[in-house]
Amino acid sequence: MPVQADGQWWQHAVFYQVYVRSFADSDGDGIGDLDGIRSRLGYLELLGVDALWLTPFFTSPMADHGYDVADPRDVDPVFGDLAKFDLLVAEAHERGIRVTIDLVPNHTSDQHPWFVAAVEAGPGSPERDRYWFRPGAYPPNNWTSIFGGPAWSQLPDGDWYLHLFAPEQPDLNWANPEVAADLERTLRFWLDRGVDGFRIDVAHGMAKPESLPDMDPSVREGSGLLHDNAVDPRFDNDGVHEVHRMIRKVLDGYPDTMAVGEIWVKGDDRFARYLRPDELHLGFNFRLVDADFDADAVRLAIESSMHAAADSTPTWTLSNHDVVRHVTRYGDGDLGLRRARAMTLVEFALPGALYIYNGEELGLPTVELPEWALQDPMWKRSGHTKRGRDGSRIPVPWEGTEPPYGFSTTANTWLPMPLEWAPLTVEAQLEDEDSTLSLYRHAIELRKTHPAFAGTEVEWYGAPAGCFAFRRRGGGLICALNTSPAPVPVPPGEVLLASEPLVDGQLPPDAAVWLV
Ligand code: GLC
């Protein structure tokens, strides 16, 4: 059924993150593209997702695989063109799937015309005021880049410029009004083409203190992409909220649209500030990503997320293109997969919005790639001390028994695909009732149609050590998780779905169950 008008759709939506490079390749260059996504919309409809989040497909030299944007209002030829984007949106809407896209307001590419002009115009020029340029014999302060090394690079004319990520990603100066005006143009450009919303990259990043104070060196030590910042002058400055208010104002003029922010901040109260009624609709928090497979840790993550979103809508996610996939985080081989399946039921039982990362519905692990294959700037910039994120970005296996498994027509895919993925393809799992793909399909179907999922509050039951059970107040769904080494009795009720078969009526270790 085509997309229906609904101002609140995002409050309970199942979003599906498409890492565009790795989803489906239509033209045989080994890199995924927009036509590839369009050719797989039938699969996404079958899976039952409500909306897509497409990672950046804009014009880019790809120093950070698209998160370095040279033209935010055009499509990179590697991925297609604007006409192909329009077709994708139209067909997705026809199938009842909304389309949201990435927005990268913290920085541009060093090939963006603004930065090229700034380099050319020289020190003290108005062109340099759109970024953070400073003169001096030394870097202006001790800030480090999230990808490793100093956050400042020097031009031959002596000026330093700020980049919280790679040197090819100069940070914009949001105190310059042209920067906000340009983002507004970008928002309207895509909204007028029919997009349903945006995912805002580094939503805690844009504003910086004019005085550029040093960071606390102890923060420098632990800083990585996933750092839950303590006092860190690089992030979560109050000025950032003005940016979100501007974005919201624009979105409010387009019915049924939304924005979700990537927000890494310290503490629930700081987080909640991004979700005030005139700011973002949703915020990714990474508490479930950070939690071990342990009932107490998971419960704490859930309670804290719900507390942070008490006046808004919680948003759940277990994996994305920046982190180790949850199958791999939870343990080796079958153990990791069992636990991942259990956590899927926990996540899908919760009220709010949730995000699936492409391939997690197939139980894909993070792969340890050979060093020659690695491309992530994080790997390069860290002096090869961190493995980077490529292992979680391997192309999706669709069908067949060997690479590229229907992803492309060339086996020379941008990241190599493992030889042992034949049992993980969509084709291999689609008709298998016990597959992870079938578990996702059933879970999404129930979540969308079963009355037990009504209501926005949960209440917790007493449970044996290493276990928890909560109930959706309202609909009455019960979800129980067992992270202990022994089977446990389940709460009374009829089984709706289980991540593993119950044994003599008991919930086995590393499993979860839904009851009504
Ligand atoms: C976000 C993206 C990540 C990117 C970074 C810089 O954290 O998720 O992939 O490298 O921003 O844009």
UniProtKB/TrEMBL annotation:
InterPro entries (alphabetical): GH, GH13_cat_dom, O16G_dom_2
Family: Belongs to the glycosyl hydrolase 13 family.
Coiled-coil boundaries: none
Annotated Pfam families: Alpha-amylase
GO MF entries: alpha-amylase activity
Domain (Glycosyl hydrolase family 13 catalytic) ranges: 17-393
Species, as recorded: Kibdelosporangium aridum
Disordered, as annotated region: 383-402
Protein name per the record: DUF3459 domain-containing protein
Record Gene3D superfamilies: Glycosidases, Oligo-1,6-glucosidase, Domain 2
GO annotation, biological process: oligosaccharide catabolic process
